[in-house]
Amino acid sequence: MNENNNVLIRCHELTKNYKKGNRLVTPLEKLDLEVKRGEFLALMGPSGSGKTTLLNLIAGIDQPSEGVLEVCGEDIGKLSRSKLARWRAAHVGYIFQLYHLVPVLTAFENVELPLLLSNMSRRDRRERVEHTLSLVGLDGRMHHYPKELSGGQEQRVAIARALVASPELLVADEPTGDLDREAADSVLQLLHQLVEEYDKTIVMVTHDPRAAERAGRLLHLEKGRLLETEAG
Amino acid sequence: MMNGLFSKLLRMTVLASKQLIRHRVRTLLTLLGVASGMFLFTTVQTMQRSLDKSTKLQASDTTLVVYRENRFCPETSRLPEFYLDEIARIDGVREVIPVKIAVSNCGASLDVITFRGVPADRLSNYAPEMKLVDGSFEAWRARDDGALVGKELAAKRGLKPGDAFEAVGVRVVVSGIVDSPLPQDNSVAYVHLPFIQQASKHGLGVVTQFNVRVNDGADLDAVSNLIDDRFRSETEPTSTQPEKAFFAQTARELIDLISFTRWIGLGAVLAVLGLIGNAVLLVVRGRVKENAILQTIGFPGVAVAYLVVCEGALLGFGGSLLGVGLASLFLKLRGLSFGNEGQVMALLPDASVLLSGMGLALVLGMVASLVPAWTAMRRPIVESLRS
Ligand SMILES: Nc1ncnc2c1ncn2[C@@H]1O[C@H](COP(=O)(O)OP(=O)(O)OP(=O)(O)O)[C@@H](O)[C@H]1O
Ligand SMILES: [Mg+2]
Known about the structure:
The complex is a heterodimer of chains A (232) and B (387).
Chain A (H helix, E strand, L loop, with lengths): L1 H4 L1 E14 L2 E14 L3 E5 L6 H8 L7 E6 L2 E2 L5 H11 E4 L11 H6 L9 H14 L15 H13 L5 E5 L7 H18 L2 E5 L3 H6 L2 E6 L2 E7 L1
Helix pairs in contact in A: 5-6, 6-7
Chain B lengths: L1 H21 L1 H32 L7 E6 L10 E2 L2 H7 L3 E11 L4 E2 L4 E5 L1 H7 L4 E5 L1 H6 L3 E5 H7 L6 E4 L2 E10 L9 E4 H7 L6 E2 L1 E6 L5 H12 L6 E5 H8 L1 H35 L1 H9 L4 H34 L2 E4 L2 E4 L4 H28 L2 H6 L1
Parallel strand pairs in B: 5-10, 7-9
Antiparallel strand pairs in B: 1-12, 1-13, 2-11, 3-5, 3-12, 4-14, 6-9, 7-10, 8-9, 14-15
Helix pairs in contact in B: 1-12, 2-10, 2-12, 2-13, 10-12, 10-13, 12-13
Bound molecules: adenosine-5'-triphosphate and magnesium ion.
């Protein structure tokens, strides 16, 4: 019971197929995985092994073909589109390799986006956004546009955007893949801090062994299956 | 609850306008196109509407025009002034006034000056609805060459009391500016009957037409038959019609021309639809990833669709504000009026034309973005992210 409560992500025989023409591609096949609350999990694996596919399923932006997928206490494989959107807004923040900020919005406005559909007042939103931006170390850049920021700063804005609605789970797809070593280190430092100090659970895909070292747990994915598990 | 929904819609609208404002060049170009279309549309609608007002008979209309039979131009319609007493005696006639018309251009023209010579003592009885907005009636009575100028003609020519102006070979001095609910009256100048008769080669005793007010709009047909029957065997027989029917008959070419512009208006509407549709489609294509990101961070599909529709609607509304505004400014400043054989029709946009123009553009904007909005909303997120 207690142990069950501690499990934030549970995949059982999780399978994902895509139709490519008349061929069926199966990036994930009967995958079993449990991630506990407060874990910092790194996923590694060769290109095409299904890492992004798994992340998308966990983040609720894609739906499994078969199997069980429970995240944050919800069987998200069975939710309707609109319920899933509401679930995402409440429970998960997604960090992309290429940041994907909205170019015509300032750092502040980008981070405010997830709060626009909440019932928070303007003042509460502003406080929350400012607080989150200062947490990622960007209080001085709030009114800059993405093109006025460095890659590392953009990624911090993206992390703030993922964090601002206080989700328990963060997923990150190669968050340091486009950064130089220094910027990458400080982003990893930030993610580490989020797990240690703010009790976030993070699932991070990476190609970078140095990034994987930062994580508490490391999994290898190969051809849609989890190969080995190591303690970090 | 409603309040919450409303403020969320408002926030989404603000977000959509940020997208528009911060893609300045693209937005301006689209607005310019929409504005041109709506300018055209408003102008055409104003013509149609003015034509309707001048030709569509209403229950409240009580004016008949008695013209010389088979004549169509003020130059050739000649009736003896003494018919006046005969007409006044006919049952159902409330008031009658002899009118001598002098017109600068008898054919269809965009810019005509029409003088209506009337007996000074009869005018106020005949047209009690006519209001003086400037100058004085007494000053008009006192001056042989005085003129009461309809407000639209005055605005067009920039006339005010005391000004002299010349047209159709006569020179008059403005004594007052008048405003009437009847569109015809606002585009002409009223002068003294003997004055205009003496200026014309037909001399005293000859008028162009009689304008008759009947007691009840329902009597229009009966009274006009009585009048024409009375003069049938005279050397100058008459043809009597409601004023608007008279206008519709004499201005048939004009009406054909204006009816044709309906198609131009329709073309303008389609152009606006296509323009906004194209602009929104390009926006959605260029924003596939961005919309997927919005959905990833928890925006439901309908919110994304709303953003798209909102951009289309804002483009339509903004463009129409510009186009409709410019068109009404243009029509006001230029003061266009169509004249044909002594009948004048001023082209002035009214509120219903302006409002319907703006409403239409708003709807066009939304309709044009429905399909792009639907695509944006239905596209699977992961596919958009991989693109
Ligand atoms: N929407 C899709 N439609 C068709 N095939 C897909 C789709 N998404 C993923 N695939 C296929 O599934 C396989 C796994 O893709 P995935 O993106 O998960 O790999 P990855 O491990 O993230 O690779 P990389 O390290 O290059 O990012 C690939 O063969 C890919 O072509
Ligand atoms: Mg990937």
